[in-house]
Amino acid sequence: MNTDGTSLTYVYAVARQTERLEALLVGLGGIDDAPVTLLTDASDTTTPLAFVISHVPQDEFSESALKAHFEDLEWLEGVARAHHEVVQAVAAEATVLPLRMATVYQDDPRARQALGEQRRTLVQRMASLDAHTEYGVKIYLPPPAPPTGAESSAEAAASDVEALSASPGKAYLQRRRVQHHARERIYEQAQRAAAALEVIAARYTSQRVRHAPQTGALTGPQENVLNDAYLVRDADADGFRAAIAQSAQDFPEIRIEVTGPWAPYSFAMPPAEPSVPADEERAS
Length: 284
Known about the structure:
disordered C terminus, 2 domains, about 45% helix
């Protein structure tokens, strides 16, 4: 138990306490390679839920320190990677309810109190995640063709015939029109693909979260137009992936990507905030 006042209790996830999970955590390092352990609520005699925790430096994870660190991308990347690795390790062994990065309590007793206060809600959420795994499904459009390109041979031929008798400016506009029509066709294909995915999801999944499309370096030159997360029954995972792969063959001009299996980040609810921030507790 951290009682020296120099460390805080960092919570990665919620899981059920079992001997197998305890054995898995032996030797597992979390943030700064700190030992990862289970913190249980002694009053819980029916459903042995536990916080998956490690201890982190107070001077790096207090409320004021976190505000500064959230501007440090290198620091954030290291913490996020360590957080994810712990959650994924637990998910490989048991049902896990991931908590958001930087969920921190003043000490073990405060964390244990929070676990007890949230137990009923956590038990219900854990039950909905049993024997389920998260998968991501994304739709990407290819980058727009250059202004001088035409998307289909028929359109290209028609454009070339018109261009022979057109001025350079008119020929350019004709090419742009062909490009615009080709782009519209790709967007329509993406809409049909999204509808097909809805049908597949109704057959194989229990929940969906619609995330905002990704942009920038995450997508490269392609355009991400759909970024969904699905909670899939483990028994249906192979069928779900196979059905999407089969459906993707009907939409050759776009890319449909399935990612996972993941711990159910998209389907976990954030924990209740500690009633008093760590810095204020220390000052009182």
